[in-house]
Amino acid sequence: MASLSQRRSQIFRGTRIALGDNFRTDMHISDMEVAITRRGGQVTREVDKDTTILITSDKDYMRKSNNVKAALVKGGKAVPIVEWQWLMDCIDRNHKRPVKLYRLEQNKKQRKEDEEEAQAEAAIYAEKMEREGLFINWELNDIYTDATGFKFKVRLTRPRAENGEMDEDERSLVAAASGRTDDRPRDNEHEIMTLYLAESKEKNPTLYTFAFEYQKRKGGKKYKNRPTFAGGVFADEFARFKDFFERKCGISWDERLARVGVMRHLNFFEYDPPANSGVPLGLIEGDDNIPEAYKEAVMAQREAAEAQAIQNEIAELFGE
């Protein structure tokens, strides 16, 4: 008689899973096939009459690949189309997860609703700021620079959903016309979110302000937002900055280097750290959040910042 763990591990029994392509994950198709069959499921690379679920990428869904078309022809409900994270979560939790939270058609609808809501809200703020001058007045403020020399003007990007509407032939034509040899999105194929933390030039008292800009594409209209009417103390405005970063990127501010390139939900924006090793990377809490590739630079910048802080304290103490 099979043990309880053996019975529970057959979470895909009675499930025939079609695997699409273009997954943004380090897990290869062959690994997925093994993981599914070991748990009692069947695997196919094409949607057929016995397929019960299709796992594919947002990219494939947007361009309506043959598998996606076949699944939709069967009615959509009969063959749910989900992102690869459904499989990962099923395996991690040893339980077949409900598909409704992972359906790509739902993700597309939600993303469009979120974008429309964000644009409507941003438009209201933009009008108010033009009327009352509520964004950041750069004649009275500077971009805040921390002790390492890192400037708090942070650019986040996210591939625009409509990019996926091009099929492979169209992508090839675009690549040939532009001389590009890859299909990575250009700047105008990204949504851009720019985060600011400003510091007042007036030092009695020094006030800080968090604000952000959103662009649907490079060169497009900028939607500006400043959550608070007036500036505040550093702790409050920096907390707003970090909270906004985490909501938009799905990781904490201190994880920005440790989680570079880690697959997250497609609705999240991505932060790309400076490529030049000599550029300040900013202070980071927790040595576990400093990957080996950045450790030497971050630690050197941290030590320099601490040394400067000590010098400042001495100068203030002795009135130098």
UniProtKB/TrEMBL annotation:
SUPFAM superfamilies for the chain: BRCT domain
| Pfam families the record matches | BRCT_2 (PF16589)
Alphabetical list of InterPro entries matching this protein: BRCT_dom (IPR001357), BRCT_dom_sf (IPR036420)
User: Which Gene3D superfamilies would you find in this protein's record?
Assistant: BRCT domain
Source domain of life is Eukaryota
Annotated BRCT domain residues:
7-104
Which named protein is this? BRCT domain-containing protein
Which organism does this sequence originate in? Thyridium curvatum
